[in-house]
Amino acid sequence: MIGTRYRNQRAARPRVSRKPASGRYLCLRERLQMADLLRLGCSLRAIGRELGRHASTIKRELDRHRDSKGRYLPRVADHDARQQRRRPRERKLRASQRLRSLVQAKLASRWSPEQICGWLAQSFPAEPGLRLCPETIYQALLFHDDGGLRSDGKPRLRTGRKIRKHRWRTGPGHGPVVKNMTMISERPAVVEARTEAGHWEGDLIVGAGSVSAMVTLRERKTHYGIIINLPHGHTAALTNQAIITAFSDIPAHLKRTITWDQGVEMARHQELAAATGVRIFFAERSSPWQRGANENFNGLARQYFPKGTDLSIHSDDHVREVCGELNTRPRKSLGYLTPVANFHAERRVTTRVSE
Predict the structure, then answer these.
(1) What are phi and psi of 225, to 5 degrees?
(2) Where does the record place Basic and acidic residues bias (predicted)?
């Protein structure tokens, strides 16, 4: 942990370049020669041959450094190019109060850096100064150079993480305990393609001491999620009843399959399939990536229901409120639309066809 922190702090230090100018960049002499050749009416290819540069290099130079009247002034261009190459640059979040305020507001609403950057690009397409990449926000928050992104005593990222977290391999789990499983290898190809709605992935998130739990379900195409609290235990019977209740208001065309892990809560999966009409498939042991949509949803839910806490204290109204908040967040994979909008669109489309 300490070594990781030192490594991150070192990576965050600004690097000042002291290397002499290389032939990679145009120098003042070349820019003066370029301006003279332009006045003589030479083409870009001819100028490139004279300077020993590619014609596209000449074109980019002119595109970058012509003034508002279309003139190319070589000394001004050389000064501007040197300024643009200076390191370290001023942090973008420090330079723009408006951009900093927009990012801070979305962080306070528990948006991820990637969601914030996608929303900025979609909401302000004509303002390049309001564009960011997610890594800019991560560096501001994780490298102790917040650029004004204040936490007010709260975690600045949804995970609560303060340093980079490395992924570690875990050992194999226990042997199979669920009988008569239909494995994921037998699942129809259309499920993997995500071209058809109604295919779900499910799991449990467990509270302190494995006493309380919550069922989480996520639809693969629309990313619509459902959370059901199990405050009094997570036996196979209670898990079945929770899923049956959750699916009771969903039309048949939006409940086709469920993919689950090999947890003991699915010991009565055949009864669940008979009650709901949903085909149930099981992922391989220790293969969470085979249920990636649900694993992602569990991570989002854990922001509200942290590990090691008693999940039974949360009321049904609070759980529904959390579901609503998660389903109304924009998703990059959906073109920054929301899961609830996509889910309702799938419901409406099929309803109109059936009519």
Answers:
(1) -120, 150
(2) 61-83
Given CA atoms 260, 261, 265, 266 in this order, what sign does their dihedral have? positive
Domain ranges (residues) in the chain: 23-85, 90-165, 184-354
pLDDT digit string, tens, across residues 13-40 = 555 444 444 578 899 999 999 999 999 9
Q: Which CATH architecture describes the domain 184-354?
A: 2-Layer Sandwich (3.30)
Amino acid at 309: T
C-alpha distances out from residue 78 to 28, 41, 69, 83, Å: 6, 21, 18, 9
DSSP 164: -
Q: What is the pTM of this model?
A: 0.56
Helix, strand or coil, per DSSP, at residue 175: coil
3-state secondary structure of 182: coil
Task: Return the higher-pLDDT residue of 280 and 139.
Answer: 280
Q: At residue 353, does pLDDT exceed 50?
A: no
Q: What is the mean pLDDT of residues 67-92?
A: 87
